[in-house]
Description:
This protein has 8 helices and 12 strands. The protein has helices spanning 2-6, 15-23, 105-114, 116-142, 145-160, 177-184, 188-201, 216-223, and strands spanning 26-30, 35-37, 45-51, 54-59, 65-71, 76-79, 91-94, 98-104, 162-163, 169-171, 204-206, 211-213. β4 and β5 (65-71) form a beta hairpin.
Amino acid sequence: MAVLARVPYFQGLSPAELDRIDRRMATMSWAAGTHIFHAGSAAGHLHVVAEGRVKLSQVSATGTETLADILVAGELFGGMGTLGQSAHRHTASALVPTCTLQIDQPTFRELLAEHPGVALRVLDDVAERLARAQDDVGGQVTDTVAQRVATALLRLADKLGNDRGGRGILLEVPLSRSDLAGLARSTPESVSRVMSQWRRDGVIDSGRRWTAILDLSRLEREALGAG
Length: 227
């Protein structure tokens, strides 16, 4: 119930309404490393992360897996024809032991009919995704690699960051240069050069399974192209 209340589609619904939705959703458990679905497979369910973390990834033309996003509790993923997606665009897998709530398309359509407010939020979300996809394409042409890497790190910090005050914001998640390259729509070599320079400048620090943002204001300026 607490997780459903955080899902954007269901915000503003009463506890009784959330309870009725909860009763229609299946609870699924996934061991770390388990694939929830693969890119290209038929999309007929929406999932909500109830606990844990889910990795969305794509495979490039060369066969390299690239990170597209990391999802935390309360976030939606998956797809269905109702949302204009008949096949999955990403592969979803559990980063850690994870629990998700799952709803199929017929049940979801029933919810839309019963809750016009939810239907309107779904329409807004689809429109926002289309606009974001267009912005991403435009940003690949106009934004520098540093801007895209900074934007990716700030997005992760907003979802996963542990603010340690004067010691910066800690991201306790394995994040390779290839992962960052996928998020920033760049190459591992270009991302490595940017990250190495920021490490020398004291903007970030990193280890095998963690990244720390030490100078948040500098990173925010980098994202705006004013570093």
